[in-house]
Prior knowledge:
mainly alpha
Amino acid sequence: MDAVESTKTAFDVIGGQDAIDRLVETFYRNMDELPQARGIRAIHAADLGPTKAVLKLYLAEWLGGPKSYSEQRGHPRLRMRHMGFAIGPAERDAWMACMTGALDEVVDDVRLRDSLKQNFAKLADWLRNDPDNQHDKHH
């Protein structure tokens, strides 16, 4: 592996902003089409345009691309931004079904795809705000 290879970010490997845009579009298409996603689709605005734009910025930065999300919106504060919505195991699983399908369709690199699935699963579980969420238990 040469020096250039080793400095590649997930943003580079996935295919840059074009691939992230495709991933987000596919994710929300799945949310519109998958029967198990009806509940989470209903808590989104009818017009997904603004939501898509934010997720595209966020994922680009999360994967090592441009820092536009932070520059425009500050710290992600994902849990705070999602607290107004009831997110339990069913919502987590529906979100993951939409994202897994999008990753399978858009991300060709198997190692990156599997890594992203694991990371998204952790993130989706962390965003749960139901009473059984282990992340909220104080020991």
